[in-house]
C-alpha cells in the first residue's frame, strides 16, 4: 500500500506511553475497598475505554446496586489515586524510539495529533516531556461519545484541518481500531490490538511507521 498521509493521530496510553499499570493499581484499590474481584485480565478490558465505562465493567462483579452519585464518587476517587501514581512518570517514560520516530515523521511534513479517551492527557503529556509537542490534542475532555465511536478521532482530524481519509490512526485497543474504521480512517495497530484484522497495518514496533508514512 502506498498511500500518502497528511496527518497521523496517535492514541496515548499504550501507543505513546504506558499508564495501564497505574490504571490497574488505582482501580484495584477501589475494587478492594468495595470487596469486588479485579485482576489484570479484567484490566485489559479497560484499554481505550472511558473512565465511567471502566467502572461499569468493574461493577459487573459487584452484588450491590450503586446510585449514579456513588459511581461518580468512586470514579473521582480512582482518578485521585491514579493522578498521584502518574506523578511517578517522567521524561524517561517516553522511549527514544517513540520520540525519534515522532521527530522523523514531523520532519517529513506530517501533522501529528493525539486522539485519546483520557481526561488526563495533558497531564500525562507534560509528565513525559511532550507538552505542546503535538499540532492538536483531542481527548476525553472534548468528546461526548467514547471509542468505538469515532468522535475523538474526527475531532482530532478537524483540529489539524485534514480529512479522515488523509489521516492514519495509531491504536493499541480493539475499541480504538473500531473507532478509526467507523470514522473512515486507515489504522495501524500496535501492542494488544496488533493482531486485529480490522486494522489497515499491524506494527511490530512503533518505528515501523517510518516505512508506512514516507
Ligand atoms: P482517564 P487512551 C484511555 O487512554 C485508557 O486506555 C483507558 O484505560 C482509560 O480508562 C481511559 O483512557 C480514560 O482515562 O480516566 O484518564 O480519563 O488509550 O485512549 O489514550
Ligand atoms: Mg490506548
- Count of discrete alpha- or pi-helical segments spanning 4 or more residues: 9
**What ions, cofactors and ligands are bound?**
1,6-di-O-phosphono-beta-D-glucopyranose, magnesium ion
Radius of gyration: 17 Å
**Residue share in helix:** 40-55%
Helices and strands, in order, run as: EHHHHHEHEHEHEEH
What's the rounded overall pLDDT mean?
96
Q: Bin the strand percentage.
A: 5-15%
Distance between the first and last residues' Cα: 11 Å
How are strands sequenced across the largest beta sheet?
A: 3-2-1-4-5-6
Number of strands: 6
How would you classify the helix and strand content by structural class? alpha/beta
- Extract low-pLDDT stretches: none
* Outline: globular
User: Main sheet, how many strands, which sense, barrel?
Assistant: 6 strands, parallel
Structure description:
It is built from 9 helices and 6 strands; from the N terminus they run E-H-H-H-H-H-E-H-E-H-E-H-E-E-H. With 214 residues, it is an alpha/beta fold. The longest helix has 19 residues. The model has no long low-confidence stretch (mean pLDDT 96). The site of magnesium ion has 9 residues, from loops. 1,6-di-O-phosphono-beta-D-glucopyranose binds next to helix 3.
Quick summary of this structure?
By secondary structure, this protein is an alpha/beta fold. The protein is 42% helix and 11% strand.
Q: How would you describe this structure in keywords?
A:
214 residues; alpha/beta; six-stranded parallel beta sheet; 9 helices; 6 strands; globular; binds 1,6-di-O-phosphono-beta-D-glucopyranose; binds magnesium ion
